Amino acid sequence: MSVTILFLGPLADLAGATEREVDAPVDWAGLIDAVGADVAGQLELERVNVACKGRVLADKRALMAQDGDEVALLPPVSGG
């Protein structure tokens, strides 16, 4: 039973990987523990979003990922 965490954009650089498998279930505290200090610091920022099962969460701290779910960590969009 696992959850896949996807690290996108610069968050992948901080994590040193594009994805990580962790034991299910995963809530907000479990996500913070699983991603490492550098990524966790970024997740605390309001401009970084979290998606679960393909949907961006209105309240990322309400995360509750179950077995087989995919959690994507979405950095802010930049560009001109």
What secondary-structure arrangement, pairings included, does this model have?
Blueprint: E1 2-7, H1 10-15, E2 19-23, E3 26-27, H2 28-35, H3 37-43, E4 49-52, E5 55-56, E6 64-65, E7 70-74
Parallel strand pairs: 1-7
Antiparallel strand pairs: 1-2, 3-6, 4-5, 4-7
Helix pairs in contact: 2-3
Describe the structure.
Helix content is 26%, strand content 32%. The longest helix has 8 residues, at 28-35. Helix 2 packs across helix 3 (37-43). By secondary structure, it is of the alpha+beta class. The chain is built from three helices and seven strands. The chain has a single domain, classed as Beta-grasp domain (Ubiquitin-like (UB roll)). Strand 4 (49-52) and strand 5 form a beta hairpin. The strands form two sheets. It has a five-stranded mixed beta sheet. The chain starts with a strand and ends in a 6-residue tail after the last strand.
Short description:
The chain has 80 residues and is of the alpha+beta class. Helices cover 26% and strands 32% of the residues.
Question: What are the main properties of this structure?
Answer:
80 residues; Ubiquitin-like (UB roll); five-stranded mixed beta sheet; two-stranded antiparallel sheet; 3 helices; 26% helix; globular
